[in-house]
Amino acid sequence: MNRKRMKEVLELSRRRGLTLLASESSSDRLVARLRESKTNQTLIMEIKSEADLLVQTADPELTYSLFRVYGETGERLAYERVYFERRKRLNAFVIMALLEPGNKGYETAALNIIWSICNEFTWCLPAHFNAGAEKPDIDLFAAETGFALSEVSLLLGERLPALLRERIEAEVEQRIFRPFLNQGPYGWETAEHNWSAVCAGSIGAAAIHLIDDTERLSVVLERVLHSLDCYLSGFGEDGACAEGYLYWQYGFGYYVYFAQLLKSATDGKINLFDSDKVKEIALFQQKSFTGGSTVVNFSDSPASSGIFMGLSCCLHGEYEEVIVPDASLRADYSADHCGRWAPAIRNLVWVREEWMESDASGSVAIWPSESYYLPDVQWLLSRHAAEDGGSYSFAAKGGHNEEPHNHNDTGHFIVHADGQTYLADLGSGMYTAQYFGEERYTLWCNGSQGHSVPIIDGCHQQNGATYRATVMEASADKLSDQLTLELSAAYGHAELECFKRRFLWNKDRLPVLTLTDTIAFAASSGQKEHTVTERFITFIAPELAGEGRVLLKGKRQLSMSYNHQLWEPAVTPRSDTDHFGHERFWYTLDFQAKAVTGPALSAEFIFQFDS
After folding, report:
1. DSSP letter string, 191-204
2. What pLDDT score does 95 carry?
3. Coil vs helix vs strand at 461
């Protein structure tokens, strides 16, 4: 939509103010509905508990010493823990001030943290801050802060002193609107990943809330819409998020938050939900879960996640095919360690009680048996509810090694049962300068050495878009799923003629996974002896149970069968640092080929759950 048409639409539309968040015409009606909702009571109690705890302490300061840590060491958590606690305080105090308008303790705490955030040296994280840059930085968190403060001002209304309202408007103008309009463009405006959605969506939302001049607002929204088009271009028609489920929830969440505001602000004349691709992206959530809260965690994604019920209800309202999961899968209020305002308030405001009725038995919801092949990202995803009452899942991926939040992991796979991981993806590690720098693939969770793929002639997979899989066959049906990949291109320095990996997931009764690798070496390598190590990643201590058998004993028992005449198994305990800075422990289960003297090697591993 061009700027002229945008301006005309905005001038004709009247839906501004509180109706951008909900159907209520006043904050009093909104609060009354939230307090009367049975579905929201647990979440409200979680927010109140956090607010009551936080109100006992002073707002923590973002000191110069903390700010220097990243530049001196590359470590991010010291500063970010304090930064995110301040955002959590904003959320908890403001929400409770809304819900309990007579409580002066919450209101005072809310006003103080608003003032304190307005006083911050920068709203950016040090990892994204470019000292001495020609234009002010606008990173994910600066944009989110502008969105949050503009919406807080809208919701608190006249309860917010005029000085604070004016301060919010001035700070958002100086830190967000003016640099965006006068000193852009910014690199993220054409990004095909979460940055374009979060930054542009947040700026667009803040503009809808704060900018009254329709000419100026239309200029902002024109740029925002261009960025959101770039974000969507990062998806294929299958709607899969190559960054992983966490970044779907994050990036696509902010796309939705802005899209709903814009749709409401223009009386539906600009509807970003009216798109087949956006609908497919919305359906990605229900394809990502393997059982309960466990997810297919390729890329920088955690192994489990709660559901943002507000986001799910909004999407269900737009597309009836989107599942609103059982209420037992709701993300706890504290689950978002970044303390983001937009999902926090919408998990209250957008929830529809009639769509969230829990199973009367109180049992944990199990996702339905379904299989998907997503051709653009080359993922095979399968959930199976067996006759024994168990829930079993398998996922494998092709793709390439320059994806957003990339891991070198073409040909990698995971196996889950009843919400427990048997063959694992380590997911994301602790974000540091090293994590996003030249040493990224020396880290276990990012390099192929930390994935269930082989090591060939001492070579791991290489990083880059040319190091990729070619799909030879892919199918998903009721009885079995299959994915066959050609992976020789992923191993840049290995002398390979071909490397074919075939997954066959048989779902008749208890599922059985058969993994077959066929490796042929290049003729130019001559008669030299080659080395092949088949590697598997697991959090469960493997037990060598006689010749040709390894057991993984969790809630259920997974048996791995192999040719003991060809392979020598070795179990090695490992550890690394997870996304939150905690040490985690896991195992590599390696099978070293005893002798590879011929031109080709064929290997078969069978993974079977015992009854």
Report:
1. -SSHHHHHHHHHHH
2. 96
3. coil
C-beta of residue 214 within 8 angstroms of C-beta of residue 10:
yes
* φ/ψ of residue 391, rounded to 5: -115, 120
Cα(205)–Cα(262) distance, integer angstroms: 8
Which three-class secondary structure state does DSSP give residue 351?
A: coil
Q: Does a cis peptide bond (omega within 30 degrees of 0) precede residue 185?
A: yes
Sheet holding 543-544, edge to edge: 470-476, 480-486, 496-506, 512-521, 600-609, 557-561, 549-553, 543-544
Q: Would you put residue 121 in left (φ > 0), alpha (ψ -120 to 50) or beta?
A: alpha
Residue 587 identity: Y
Torsion-angle region of residue 372: left (phi > 0), alpha (psi -120 to 50) or beta? beta
pLDDT per residue as tens digits for the range 178-203: 999 999 899 999 999 999 999 999 99
Bridge partners of 505, per DSSP, are: 481, 513
Compute the distance between CA of residue 173 and CA of residue 190 in angstroms, rounded to an integer: 22
Strands (E), 222-360: 289-291, 294-295
* Residues 502, 507, 510: CA angle, nearest 5 degrees: 115
Please give the Cα distance from 284 to 206 (Å, whole number).
Answer: 27
Query: What are the pLDDT digits (tens) for 26-68?
Result: 667 777 888 887 888 999 999 999 999 999 999 999 999 999 9
8 A C-beta contact, residue 397 and residue 412: yes
Three-state SS sequence of 33-50: HHHHCCCCHHHHHHHHHH
Distance CA 349, CA 18 (A): 11
Tens-place pLDDT, residues 386-400: 888 889 999 999 999
d(CA 59, CA 54): 8
Alpha-carbon span 589 to 326, nearest angstrom = 36
Residue 529: which pLDDT band, with cuts at 50, 70 and 90? confident
Which distant-in-sequence residues (6+ apart) come within 8 Å of 287 by Cβ? 240, 370, 372, 374, 381
Span 362-371, mean pLDDT? Answer: 68
Helix axes 77-99, 64-73, angle to 10 degrees: 140
Distance CA 274, CA 468 (A): 33
Residues 6, 266: Cα–Cα separation, whole Å: 9
